[in-house]
Request: fold
Amino acid sequence: MSSIFNIGKTALNAAQVGINVTGHNISNANTQGYSRQVIVQATAQAQNWGFGFIGQGTQIDTVKRVYNDLLAKQLNNSQSISSAINTQLSNINQINSMLADSNAGLSPAIQDFFKSINDLSSATNDPASRQAVISSGEALISRFQSLGERLQEMQSNVNAQLTTSVATVNTYAKEIARLNETIDAAMSSTGQPPNDLMDQRDQLVLQLNKEIKGTVVVQDGSKYNVFIGNGIPLVSGLKAYSLATINSPTDPSRLAVAYQSGGTTSLLSETSLQGGTIGGLLQYRSQSLDTSQNTLGQIAIGLAQSFNTQHQQGLTANGTPGGNFFNIPAPEVNGSSRNTGNAEVSSGIVNANALTTSDYRLRYDGSNYSVTRTSDGVSQSFTSLPQTVDGVSFSIDSGSMNSGDEFVIRPTANAATNMSMAISQIANIAAGAPVVAGTAASANTGSGAIGSVRVDSGYASAPLTTPFTLNYTGGNLSGFPAGQAITVTTASGSTTYPAGSSVPYTAGASISVAGLNFSISGAPANGDQFTVSANTSNASGDNRNALQLAALQTGKTMNNGTASYQDVFNQLVSFVGNRTRELQVTGAAEDELLKQTLTTQQSESGVNLDEEAVNLLRYQQAYQAAGKVMQIASTLFDTLLSIR
Reply:
């Protein structure tokens, strides 16, 4: 009789456990990271009665969670990618909005500045026109500085976000290690899985992947080992390691991510930290923010240097040679904090036309110096310094480099923020040309005529001190400045003649000598003369240099003569806009993939309230049936007692 009671009791207990588990599922239907739990029920061991085995009811082997390891890995990976893209997108949107603003962008300031130059060329004696040039130049500088400072703020914001995200990663790592210990202790003592704790740990891993991509490897069936980057352990069993943010060895203003283990802090390569907020921030900084900052600086330097060069070729209202119109900041040079030598390295902008948007890494291996363009890894090796690469000079002012020493040179990074005006007086604007227009002798009998004379960048270093007169004889021109080679450019090409040569005459050909450019047209007669002399009496009313300054707006003075200032800025706006759009499209796709992966995972592991309601009815009926078995056993027992 007792066996019937025991069978009913086991059935009653099983139904009760089923109701409890189902109720637990229902109560956690909206709990983030919760996995649906089910009971694993089996028959109790049967008893041999001689005539055969009779079952002893049922037993609960375990309560397990419905968990798919493959789907969990897919969800973690998708979460990591989605977080990285959305981090980049939220940050680059700020750059895109700033550069694309038609009112606050750089284009209006450049246009206003050159409009004032054009106005000056029409009224070089007008003080108001000259003051407008100074004012619009200051406004242009202010716009460069404003944009540069905003980009520097974004660099600081990246540092702040990295610090916050690294602290969050460390918190998650410690909590995962703590749960490893708790789960391992629970399984060791009971042999049963603590499902709720395991769900908490998996949810922490998912949250960790929002910050950085983490790969989980299970150890001893219960403990999680979590690896980041190129197999770097963040959690190893019961031990948690930590990350830290430190100043970059070659740029104190820039935070880098480091790994801490046993009292040692090791700098991690940015390319090894993929996924999550940290990976997204590092990728955004290196691929978008640095490029934007460097390109803005490239435009500032390109405009300032080309304008200064042409300004130096002119004459001020006082008849003196023009000086610098803008002050150009020197490249930023940062020596590594790990250097052992005492070298003082300097850098300068030699040719803004050849300038790129890259930073450079200068290293010494004990015998050779290498200059590496960080944007594409192209490196050049030299046995000595100074050297010039991409229009940037590299030299050692004092001391010496030891083997392994390195410096990072940033030619354009902070140029926009640090550039300034070099003149403030309207009389110092060099609107006039340093030479007068070429004149033909009054005694000439031919129809030859010399056009206006322009100067190039080489004129200011050796200005014309005395006039020179060209003589036409027998189809040749002679009388060029002594010691100066002559270059003649025609439709068929350019030819350079040695100093002192008689040059064959070609009507309309461009002639360059001693930093001067002019042409002679028509048909000169033998004995005709043409004179070129310095401008000594009409500097204030001359507008020829102002016209050449105005022409710089559309001149191809950047990227090795292939682009104007506006072209380079348009390319920057296009780059940022295209990158933003790419991230929007990719981000939307990854968000949808994350949503689908989560839906798939929840379809298996999530709680379905309809299903749980059915389970409640099923276990309720099982409970009632088990009670009926016990009631029958009680009735039979009462019958036996009544017989006595």
Remarks:
- The chain has four domains: 2-66+606-643, 71-292+564-598, 330-413, 439-534.
- Residues 127-190 form the longest helix (64 residues).
